[in-house]
Amino acid sequence: MKKLTVALILTSLLFGNACAKSIVKKDSNPDIEKLNRVLAGMSQKCKDAIPNGDAEEFLADLYKVLDSEKECSSSDLSPFYLIDKKHYVGADYVPKGLIHLEKNPYYEINKNNLSLRPEAFAALEKLGQAAKNDGVTLTVSSTYRSYEYQKNLFQYWVSVDGLEEAERESAREGTSQHQLGMALDFAPVDDAFDKTPGGQWVYKHAAEYGWSLSFPQGYEDVTGFRWECWHFRYIGVEACRFQKKWFSDVQQFMIEFLNSWKSNN
């Protein structure tokens, strides 16, 4: 089958080159036709983030990511569930099988009420052990938060910083990745984490264990939140690779793409 590049797909569909023939023929791969539709609906900033590449290679990588969902419980939300200021979960959503974080030889905890979904819990243990092997001790400060907890936390930050600033730094109830039980904050929970040995180690190695930085610097207009160097979400190793290779390592772009892919028929 003829190879097609993502760049050509974007050029043909998005810029309306009158001289170019349609690159999708009736006998072409139906998933490439679907890719056309999905990419056409993405934001311009997301399209700009996608590098030139082979469409079939892109799809092969995508299939690996979708297949990796089988590693997570099918009775709970997908590890790629889109949750942000426009997409949310209800007050009654609680992840299944939450595991309480306790004192352990892999990483430190600085609170007693921390818990994660089993998949994230196991991945954190591997991440912490790898860091320890390199002489770095990570400290976990926040994990799963209930709807009510997040509601109270958001109101607290409104009282401290005002509504406009709180919207940049704290999620409203039902819109926080923390409610999924798949996200965590490392300590210190401030910009100082960026320069710590733990921060530097995590930036370099987190993806090897399936952890992705959720709110990177310079993408507040995309994520809705300012840079949070301490906040990571577990999405799995394959998704981290896919994100880095095809979406300029921006989690929001990849999650939005996966959501559109699944909902596009």
Describe this structure in a few short sentences:
The chain has 265 residues and is α+β, with helices and mostly antiparallel strands.
Explain this structure.
It is globular and about 55 Å long. The chain is built from eleven helices and seven strands. Helix content is 43%, strand content 10%. Helix 1 (6-14) crosses helix 2 and helix 6 packs across helix 7. The protein starts with 5 loop residues before the first helix and ends with a helix. It has helices at 6-14, 30-40, 44-49, 55-68, 118-133, 147-161, 163-169, 197-205, 220-223, 237-246, 251-263, and strands at 99-100, 108-109, 115-116, 139-142, 183-186, 211-215, 228-234. With 265 residues, it is α+β, with helices and mostly antiparallel strands. It has a five-stranded mixed beta sheet with strand order 2-4-5-7-6. A two-stranded antiparallel sheet has the order 1-3. The model is unreliable at 11-27 (pLDDT under 50).
Key terms:
265 residues, two-stranded antiparallel sheet, alpha+beta, 5-stranded mixed beta sheet
- Count of β-strands: 7
Largest sheet: 5 strands, mixed
Specify Rg, calculated over alpha carbons: 20 Å
End-to-end gap: 23 Å
Assembly state of the chains shown: single chain
Task: Give the helix proportion (percent range).
Answer: 40-55%
N-to-C SSE string, H for helix and E for strand? HHHHEEEHEHHEHEHEHH
Structure annotation, total helices: 11
Strand content: 5-15%
Average predicted local confidence, pLDDT: 91
Q: Pick out the low-confidence regions.
A: 11-27
**Sheet with the most strands: spatial strand order:** 2-4-5-7-6
**Shape annotation:** globular
Structural class: alpha+beta
